Amino acid sequence: MNIAMLLDMAASGDPDRVAVGPRDAGTTCAELRRAAAGVAAVVHSSGARELVFAGVNGPAFPVLLFGAALAGVPLVPVNYRLSAEALAGLLKHTERPLVVADETLLAEAFAGCEVRTPEALLAEGSAAEPAVGLEADADDPAVLLFTSGTTAAPKAAVLRHRHLSSYILQTVEFGSADPGDAVLMSVPPYHVAGVGSVLSNLYAGRRMVHLGSFEPEAWLGLVRTEGVTSAMVVPTMLARVVEHLDGRAAEVPTLRSLAYGGARMPRPVLEAALRAFRDTGFTNAYGLTETSSTIALLGPEDHRAALSSDDPLVRARLRSAGRMVPGVEAEIRDAAGVAQPAGAVGELWVRGPQVSGEYKGDAASLDTASLDADGWFHTRDLAHFDADGYLFIEGRADDTIIRGGENVAPAEVEDVLLRHAAVREAAVVGVPDEEWGERIAAFVVTHAGASVDAEALRAWVRGHLRSSKTPDVVVFRDELPYTPTGKLLRRQLLTPTTRKG
Predict the structure, then answer these.
(1) DSSP label of 79
(2) Tell me: the pLDDT tens digits for 295-350?
(3) Largest CA distance in the chain
(4) Domains (ranges, CATH) in the chain?
């Protein structure tokens, strides 16, 4: 199934429903289908093999996504925040691209490429004869997404039409949204959640409202003025909203559902958000680029149960990723590949029709080494399941610190540091040491006006964990490095620091 079929279903089922934009002046499903067909005609006539998009998440993005699908070429959203040199490096992984870039990005990064602004492409498409009969097959690539590169160089994950359509058909009910429902789209288009949000909300019948540049006040204002009923944020976005509210209620009466994901959510931020959005149901969505978005969900009922329970095992689920979605299997395996029982920490492997685990190389070669012979994908996330099937992500296997022969998960130490009243952000990494193999280094950002020294933080960790997991050094920073989607860039931590303790 080509993902363009999702648009065909929406346009046939309710052609006059506003799919994108304001309630009174947005683009209907039928108009979106016509615009996508026009873009497909332009792409086809250009001879492009891939459609590259470098720009913010806005009304043009759904048109480009479905336009590429109708033209039978993959869409390649790239991080528009990267330097010209980095963007040029990503383009080396593409094949005969047509680049669509915001006006401010028409620079040396795209030298030698055919380039149009979104406005110019849409205008050209509106005058073109709609393309027909060009759709790709279900097994053809629909989207190429560059992984974040937090632990290695970015590589292009291949999501085929069958992966994305399987994700939607397994997790979303067609036309299930109420007539007045609207979703606020603020996740970048080069994030898998940005792609998944377009497909799932169009299929459900939910109007899409876009916020190109995230600011807490603008985000809250758009929720109120557009009557937004659901939204998705990454942890750094939610942290900024909570900080902006400063203990006040959010006052967004229409917002029924708020999903978060993309990186680990600090518990203090989540608890503050739950207090600020008391009438909103929270959902933790865990997934990877290679799995076509969400593979596990912790729903609103789970959040409420965890908050109100006196059972420590139930309360602990507030930091879990929830349960696996329909159609996705999961196993925890040890280093030898042996499946582990509930409670045991190991590496997470997943399998299902939405799982890709496939990458595009420099010479259009594909590397499927992350899939085993039975189709299981090695996520390289450390995790465990509790007895009731709730998934707990403990961090990346590559991040594990081996100190004196003992494995230390950074997330475990970070969680303790974040419970200290003075600590706003924390990151833990291993640094080489001749005696111990690695030492534990903690990088800490304190709350404004808070004061704490390194020895006090070491004593705090020592009081909650074994002494072998106490940081050997604490480094105070004014900020920590993150990707725009909220993932911590651990490789950048071991650079000259601002304050040490």
Answers:
(1) -
(2) 999 999 999 999 889 999 999 999 899 999 999 999 999 989 999 999 999 999 99
(3) 70
(4) 1-164 (3.40.50.980), 329-396 (2.30.38.10), 400-500 (3.30.300.30)
